[in-house]
């Protein structure tokens, strides 16, 4: 074989070796660039998923619909279901910083309110972990002194006045049920509604609508039940008997109208918003709320330290001075 042909063959073999090395090296480089590109997309997708969850939470709260974990996975996360914790934590941070709210888990349904079939299923599915509702709602994280009507006005779902009336109605009903031991029979509920002048009709959510300034009480109660403020339980053993129907506070009602809010309603209705020691003792006994002590008068501030000194002072004054009454200054609501 001539020398020139051997040189050409060696050169060709050398070129083939270089091509092989290039092919072996190039996939690794392309793979690294592809991984970097994927990580960049993931960061962007996580940010978009967080924003999407914030919008979903606000939309659910606007319609008073529970923010369900299954709904988050289906409507927000999609194929990124494994990112739930990361996206949820990011949404919480954004909700607190931007809107002054956060998602809290709704309480589970009381076991005593479950039917026999539901109790049987719950017993079969019991595990070592505490039962959770996997449902959430938005609550305010603003400081207490900022949670006033001048700052947080009723939302204009249809009408601010209608929203305020609706809030007042379900707050009053939740307070009545809670103070009645946690449940109320249907006849007793109807009697309370009669006292509230709401036996047949309640204010409409849009009172500006001249064609429907009010709504049927039954429809409003159904809405309160659907939204989780109330729970209606019927005993199947006595079907058709009104006494067999009982009303309880629902999951949303327990979170939105807690015992402190109920105490504020009672103070306003029975105490006129003024401090009342006897009323505070009753609220403390029934609701276990923080006792709000009335402001002491000047005479009370200089009260003697011992009972003996107290008796001596009363003898000296002849008991002519009447005991100081409650202050007339209106206290801050709830």
From TrEMBL:
Residues 1-43, 286-334 are annotated as: Disordered. GO terms for cellular component: nucleus. InterPro entries: MAGE, MAGE_WH1, MAGE_WH2, MHD_dom. GO terms for biological process: DNA repair. Residues 34-43 have a biased composition (Basic and acidic residues). Residues 308-323 have a biased composition (Acidic residues). Residues 46-117 form the MAGE domain. Residues 296-305 have a biased composition (Low complexity). SMART domains: MAGE (SM01373). It holds the Pfam family MAGE. PANTHER family: MELANOMA-ASSOCIATED ANTIGEN MAGE ANTIGEN, NSE3 HOMOLOG, SMC5-SMC6 COMPLEX COMPONENT. This is MAGE domain-containing protein.
């Amino acid at each position: 074989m001539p020398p020139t042909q051997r040189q050409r063959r060696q050169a060709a073999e050398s070129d083939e070796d270089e091509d092989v090395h290039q092919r072996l090296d190039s996939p690794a480089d392309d793979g690294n660039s592809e991984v970097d590109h994927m990580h960049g997309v993931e960061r962007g997708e996580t940010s978009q998923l967080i924003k999407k969850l914030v919008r979903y939470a606000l939309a659910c709260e606007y319609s008073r619909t529970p923010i369900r974990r299954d709904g988050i996975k289906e409507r927000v996360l999609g194929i990124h279901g494994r990112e739930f914790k990361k996206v949820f934590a990011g949404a919480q941070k954004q909700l607190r910083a931007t809107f002054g709210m956060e998602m809290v888990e709704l309480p589970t349904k009381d076991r005593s309110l479950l039917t026999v079939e539901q109790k049987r299923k719950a017993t079969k599915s019991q595990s070592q972990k505490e039962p959770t509702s996997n449902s959430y709602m938005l609550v305010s994280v603003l400081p207490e002194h900022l949670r006033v009507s001048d700052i947080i006005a009723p939302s204009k779902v249809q009408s601010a006045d209608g929203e305020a009336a609706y809030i007042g109605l379900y707050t009053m009903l939740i307070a009545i049920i809670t103070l009645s031991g946690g449940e109320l029979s249907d006849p007793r509920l109807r009697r309370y509604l009669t006292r509230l002048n709401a036996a047949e009709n309640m204010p409409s959510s849009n009172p500006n609508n001249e064609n429907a300034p009010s709504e049927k009480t039954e429809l409003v109660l159904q809405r309160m039940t659907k939204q989780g403020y109330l729970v209606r339980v019927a005993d199947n053993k006595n079907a058709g008997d009104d006494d067999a129907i009982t009303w309880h506070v629902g999951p949303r009602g327990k979170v939105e109208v807690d015992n402190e809010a109920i105490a504020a309603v009672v103070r306003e209705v029975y105490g006129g918003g003024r401090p009342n020691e006897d009323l505070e003792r009753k609220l403390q006994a029934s609701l276990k709320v923080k006792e709000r002590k009335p402001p002491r008068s000047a005479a009370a501030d200089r009260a003697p330290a011992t009972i003996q000194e107290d008796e001596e002072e009363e003898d000296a004054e002849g008991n002519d001075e009447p005991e100081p009454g409650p202050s007339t200054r209106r206290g801050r609501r709830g």
